[in-house]
Amino acid sequence: MRRTLALVAGACTAVVLAGATAYAMTGDRTTPEPAGTAQLGRAAAPARADAAPEARRGAEAAQPVAPLPKSVGAIIDAVGRQQGGALESVDRMVGYHAESDAQTFSYPGAEYVKVHFDKLSMLPGDYVTVSDPAGTEVHRIDGDPLEVVDGLLGSRPAESGDGRWAMSVTGDTAVVTLHRAIPDPLGVQEAAGLGVRVDKVARGFSDTEQDAENARERTLSRSGREESVCGSNEARDAVCYKSADPAAYKKSKAVARLLINGTELCTGWRIGSTNRMLTNNHCMVTSSDAYDTEVWFDYQCAKCGGHSVFKPTKVWGDKVLSTNGDLDYTLFTVENFAQVQKYGYLTIETSRPRSGSEVYIPQHPGGDPGQIAMASDRDGKGICAVDDPAYDGYGEDTDVSYYCDTAGGSSGSPVISRATDRVIALHHFGGCPNSGVRIDLIYNRIKKLL
């Protein structure tokens, strides 16, 4: 397994502390210090472009490009999310009509397991838990009263994709258990049309499958799609900057991994002190998308170059408040906001960025534990900097370009000024240079909602 729950095995950057050529910055932000040269375990391989405008960005990237038609943009956006898992069809009953009140779903090597219920018809007081085998991560699901009525009437749930996802369990095994408020030794409840059924499972890729996905992406790159890792991959575990750049490390805590529809990955972040999150439009469009999105905070390595990760705090997305395809942003809220307030928030820079301004990007490339892209072998000073503050995105001059290293799953990350520690852009495109939508343009659309 690449990573498991709560300071167990994880996939973090292997950092060599001696002989380094990459740089982390000291607190005075002027003198570079060696930080490490070893490549990231997964992101070091050629990575997929985050939103794939590469079909129209190649050797001609410096030339003005007209905004894409909506139909073409939709196709490009469809490959903007990083694939991080697969769906498995199952048909398993739990309790009531089943032989046991517990069912185990195991997929050796999977990073996470996430079950979907197409039937949750339970008696009042009964509930279901989804947990890891050790019970260190437990998620509770209560029944829907309307499904109880359906069960008693003998009707079946709609076959149109209705149902409910459970929160994922980190690791390769999930245990689904029915908890009964009233024992039923005579089996009366089984005769009442009640039932709990799992119809599909989303599971995170195993290492072997992730390697195959990386190979597929390399094939795509040979077909004309450029990489988002520009030169050597110098993104590092966020914790590597805990002492070297405490401000950057603190800001990274406000950045979350997004698990969308069980198998797709993006990045999002808290904007302002209230319940507001920002990501890309190509990651999330509607409130229905938000409802099926897990937002993972504090999914970070515990030690620079180590193999353990913090237990993430997982909450559900809630409502989409504003979204726009041309500026590729979505503003949304989360459920249980109080659980994630402690991780802080980011503020934005409303003035237009300038060429040469140094930046860094906290992100979850490939869905991995939090990393920060700050060093750059494509920039003269060795630090990521704004290359073009008037770069073409879906519209003319909507973007800021840079050579910070990103990968699939980094879509929706904040691009932050090193001078002010404020967000200047919303990362969304790969292609070297990579680019993000100017945050001042987005702010004009959402300021009344913040």
Can you give a write-up of this model?
The chain folds into two domains: 23-83 and 208-449, Beta Barrel (Thrombin, subunit H), CATH 2.40.10; 85-204, Jelly Rolls (Sandwich), CATH 2.60.120. It has helices at residues 70-78, 145-153, 207-222, 246-252, 287-291, 439-446; strands at residues 23-25, 32-34, 82-83, 85-94, 102-106, 112-121, 127-131, 138-142, 164-165, 169-170, 173-179, 195-204, 236-237, 255-260, 264-270, 277-279, 293-297, 313-324, 329-334, 359-363, 371-373, 386-391, 399-402, 414-417, 423-429, 434-438. The protein contains six helices and 26 strands. The longest helix has 16 residues, at 207-222. With 450 residues, it is mainly beta. The chain has an eight-stranded antiparallel sheet. Strands 14-15-16-19-18-17 form a six-stranded antiparallel β-barrel. Strands 4, 6, 9, 10 and 12 form a five-stranded antiparallel sheet that branches.
Give the structural class: mainly beta
Strand tally = 26
As a percent range, the share of strand residues is 25-35%
Give the neighbour order of strands across the main sheet. Answer: 13-21-20-24-25-26-23-22
Annotation field: number of helices: 6
Average pLDDT works out at 79
